[in-house]
Amino acid sequence: MPGTPLYPQTDENQALAKRIFLKNLDDCIKFPKYFEIETVNACNARCVMCSVKEWTKRKDPIMRMDLFHKFVEEIKEYSGWVETVCLNRDGEPLLDKEVPKRIALLKEIGIRKVTLSTNGQLLTSETATRLIEADLDDIMVSIDGITKETFEKIRHGLNYDTVLENTLGLIRLRNSINPGMIIRIRMVVMPENMHEIEPWMKHWSKQIGKNDRIYAKPLHTWGNQVNTVDANPDADDSADPCVSPFSSMVIHVDGTVPMCGIDFRNKYLMGNLEKESIREIWSGEGFSGIRMLHAQRKKNTIPFCYRCPIWETEKIIDPGNISGDCELSADGK
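The structure corresponding to this sequence follows.
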């Protein structure tokens, strides 16, 4: 019947639409609003909470520029629709020497917000300057402790002193070159660092600018794939739909598109940008089926989605103000 809504018009679905800046949830099928582009599937760290040990080895761990150009050309038409493009997913983006060029290409076509997250080890003054001058809008640095002992117990392979110096250097360079760029400092909360949350917040709230953010993010299980004990003790069996299948697309380094950011093995493969367009994948059977299950409050029938709190429990903590609001911030760290 003409005019029949695609998704049930429930209060939960209407709230979801508002959260992703849509007048109606049916509008989501037009095009993704958020993208995570994995330009690198490799990392210089072996963090205790990460899925890195489970990754499938890629023949080429860095995304080819011709595939990235295909992505840029396809989203160009929707530059006013797309909210954010994040230039990483599971890997460390600064291993990609072309990342400043990729940022510039996205800004040239009018993408309003380009972001990335990094572990900070490779964030030298030269690299930071290149990122800022490429017009990066937002950068997140993961720092999971306020002491060297705690940080290096979690972030294996990284040096706390180097990450600290690089992050403070980034703040200084940002202030002098492009004060409008937002810097986020993030801690993944786990048993090893819970005792340092308060001093960590106090320290970083004094370092950042008024528009920057610090926040603590609870540990998660990568869709029940990585065995982290008691990672989500407060997670419940809520059937409320997740924002991800209605708003976000992840594209791995080889062009494969999984269900969402936690699907690092492509267990729920939605398509491949090498062979299909973004629009074809977004409107295909894979995403359509997942979205309908969520809209009908059946998301817990999907093993990855059962009790997954990744989009619901992130706390954004501004200096002097603790908020429980969830922000759509795509990061793979």
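DSSP finds ten helices and eleven strands in the chain.
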